[in-house]
């Protein structure tokens, strides 16, 4: 049995979640007839303080549908330079929306509003106009980092003052809310849309939601259909999402505690690692691929995100024993083999 710290997406549904899925009331969601999907969408919209929500198969589709709803081909989308939308969605903004990325630098994934302002081009026929700003909270490649609320507010003020629409990639919005002692609704308050994932820390097998105004979500339904994301008896999946929202949000605190313990243990054994703000620990490891292979031999799964960086993520399928085992594996590698 491995301690699997590659991602918070590796979790498997618990027996109670499986029962909820098996017993779900379903209908054809493309006709809007699936009671479980409808309930999940209503729950999601209420939870994040938006008028409406749409259930989608993945976080990638949720983000890309948002981009398509907010932009026209030839527009510029401002986003953090290592953000998921820009770096890890297979070039979808170019293909699906025909937009130009306007990358913004960051410190640990957190953009400075002044840098965003600098990335906005003058209004002049030579330039692709910036019409959308995407913010990723928590920031994955930033180390699971969390935007301070005053930075969120400065970014949304900037967007509104410049007539730029705002999308929040809140794949891990519940981790962000917990870490900043606020609610997802407060974080999302001044964004036009928010996407969040059920299949990350919340433990559902599939699914994300895009939330916004009725008008935007109506448009999103057409874009989802166009992309082949209209699902029929999707209530089986929605039931897992409802279970996740009802049972697995508050326990994210445990993931944050485990990440912190992991970080402490690694630093204690001589590794350099970024102190976690949520459920991710990024470790400096020259020769990261080799270290990942040695960790696997020692029973721990991790991901090399760069030649010199390893990512470890805590989630509901690891426990404190597993974390101690991972620390012991790192200690062993440090002692017996070069990193
Ligand atoms: C910040 C962020 N946004 C979006 C996604 C995309 O989610 P999915 O894998 O469901 O497409 C991920 C996936 O890891 C992510 O970390």
Task: Characterise the protein shown here.
- By secondary structure, the chain is α/β, with parallel strands linked by helices.
- It folds into 2 domains: 15-247, Type I PLP-dependent aspartate aminotransferase-like (Major domain) (Aspartate Aminotransferase, domain 2, 3-Layer(aba) Sandwich); 251-336, Aspartate Aminotransferase, domain 1.
- 43% of the residues lie in helices and 17% in strands.
- The protein contains 14 helices and 13 strands.
- The strands form 3 sheets. A 7-stranded mixed sheet has the order 2-8-7-6-5-3-4, sandwiched between helices.
- Helix 1 (15-22) packs antiparallel against helix 11.
- The longest helix is centred in the last third of the chain and has 17 residues, at 252-268.
- It is globular, with a radius of gyration of 20 Å.
- It starts with a strand and ends with a helix.
- 51% of the residues are buried.
- The model has no long low-confidence stretch (mean pLDDT 97).
- The structure holds pyridoxal-5'-phosphate.
- Pyridoxal-5'-phosphate binds at residues 58-60, 63, 84, 136, 140, 169, 171, 197, 199, 208.
Global outline: globular
| Number of separate helices | 14
Biggest sheet: strands side by side, in what order? Answer: 2-8-7-6-5-3-4
Q: Quick one: how many beta strands?
A: 13
* CATH-level-2 architecture of the largest domain: 3-Layer(aba) Sandwich
Please estimate the helix content: 40-55%
Strand content: 15-25%
Give the total of domains.
2
Low-confidence stretches: none
Assign the CATH class of the largest domain.
Alpha Beta
| CATH homologous superfamily annotation of the largest domain | Type I PLP-dependent aspartate aminotransferase-like (Major domain)
Q: Let me know the average pLDDT.
A: 97
Tell me the radius of gyration. Answer: 20 Å
Bound molecules: pyridoxal-5'-phosphate
Termini, distance in Å?
23 Å
What characterizes the major β-sheet? 7 strands, mixed
């Amino acid at each position: 049995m491995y301690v699997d710290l590659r991602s918070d997406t590796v979790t498997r549904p618990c027996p109670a979640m499986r029962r909820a899925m098996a017993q779900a009331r379903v209908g054809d969601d493309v006709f809007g007839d699936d009671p479980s999907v409808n309930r999940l969408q209503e729950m999601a919209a209420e939870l994040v303080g938006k008028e409406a929500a749409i259930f989608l198969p993945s976080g990638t589709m949720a983000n890309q549908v948002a981009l398509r709803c907010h932009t026209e081909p030839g527009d510029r989308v401002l986003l953090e330079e290592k953000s998921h939308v820009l770096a890890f969605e297979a070039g979808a903004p170019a293909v699906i929306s025909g937009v130009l990325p306007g990358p913004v630098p960051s410190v640990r994934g957190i953009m400075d509003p002044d840098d965003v302002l600098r990335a906005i081009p003058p209004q002049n026929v030579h330039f692709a106009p910036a019409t959308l700003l995407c913010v990723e909270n928590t920031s994955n490649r930033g180390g699971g980092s969390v935007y301070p609320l005053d930075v969120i507010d400065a970014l949304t003020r900037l967007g509104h003052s410049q007539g730029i629409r705002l999308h929040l990639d809140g794949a891990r919005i519940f981790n962000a809310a917990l870490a900043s002692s606020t609610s997802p609704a407060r974080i999302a308050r001044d964004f036009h849309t928010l996407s969040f994932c059920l299949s990350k820390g919340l433990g559902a097998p599939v699914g994300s939601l895009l939330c916004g105004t009725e008008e935007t979500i109506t448009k999103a339904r057409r874009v989802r259909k166009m992309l082949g994301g209209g699902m029929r008896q999707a209530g089986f999946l929605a039931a897992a999402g409802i279970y996740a929202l009802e049972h697995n949000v508050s326990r994210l605190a445990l993931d944050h505690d485990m990440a912190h313990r992991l970080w402490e243990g690694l630093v204690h054994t001589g590794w350099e690692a970024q102190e976690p703000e949520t459920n991710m620990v990024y470790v400096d490891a020259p020769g990261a691929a080799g270290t990942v292979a040695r960790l696997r031999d020692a029973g721990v799964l991790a991901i090399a995100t760069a030649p010199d960086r390893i990512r470890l993520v805590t989630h509901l399928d690891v426990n404190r024993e597993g974390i101690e085992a991972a620390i012991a594996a790192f200690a062993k590698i440090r002692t017996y083999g070069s990193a």
